[in-house]
Amino acid sequence: MSVAQKRLLDLIDVEIGIVRPRRKTLVIVKYANFSVNYGEMVGVVGESGSGKTMLCRAIIGTLHRRGVSIMGGQVNFEGEDLSKINEARWKMLRGKVIGYVPQSALAGPNPVLTIAKQLAEALEQVDGTGSMESRAKELLDLVKIRRIDTVMKQYPYQLSGGMRQRVMIACALASRPKILIADEPTTGLDVTVQSQIMDLLKEIRRDLGTAIILISHDLALVDEVCDKIVVMHAGATVEVVASGNMSQPRHPYTIALNASRIDIAKPGGNLTIIKGNPPSVGQWNPGCRFVERCDYREDDCNVGEHPPLVGEKDGHQTACLHADKIKTI
Predict the structure, then answer these.
(1) In terms of pLDDT, which residue wins out, 130 or 170?
(2) What is the C-alpha to C-alpha distance for residues 68 and 57, in angstroms, rounded to an integer?
């Protein structure tokens, strides 16, 4: 199978912003680049405000609900540019071919509907055989929920956080999507339940062949479960690296993120932190947006546009002008 045939999703120089009357357009994301192959699990990491959730909304076509739009670049899904399709076409893709587990998944279920009715709403959009009840039970079984007959009759408030998260994943899988976007699916869950949700996502990927984009702040988690990692900083992709190669990052921001992982901190020692603060959204300095916090900066780092990603498309890519200087660190 060729690389072109394997490619499911391809983001090319995506720019996202808000057009404001009588004020300068606020650019939130610029120079976002990464790809997802069929059946691949890709992790997207970065500090708050780096543009992770905005990219999720661009892929599922809900930016307009926040007054935001794609202003440049391409979001190619199976060769179709999603930045140029209309709402009628989105209704054929969103929740069907492209599944989504939102960041607020714990609050996502409708509080006045039973779990059975919520699953029925998801299944109504999908052609299928068998009764609605039996198909709903199959979904709950797929996400490893026990006592299915009891859970079907319950309301969200009667379920634990982990159970509600599983219900949201079940709803997202109702149409057997080709790709599932999980936006920080373990937020607010304890460590044991987080592990169970990650195991569930890995099983979904293995058994259904579903590609998964996992948005997270937990670099150690993403490095463990994903095939490759996309590192975002200040609205731009700064590095794309295969999992397992995080010990050899080629961008100073990734180096800093990796050094600040709590799982590698020495017991009783000081935690390593990334110095300074990320730039405000859209208020980026010239050149590299990490330059003010970088230990490896040179005179040319704060000149011109943000550096482009360099490296093989399906290999290790970095947006650092001086990657050769730091690649062995």
Answers:
(1) 170
(2) 10
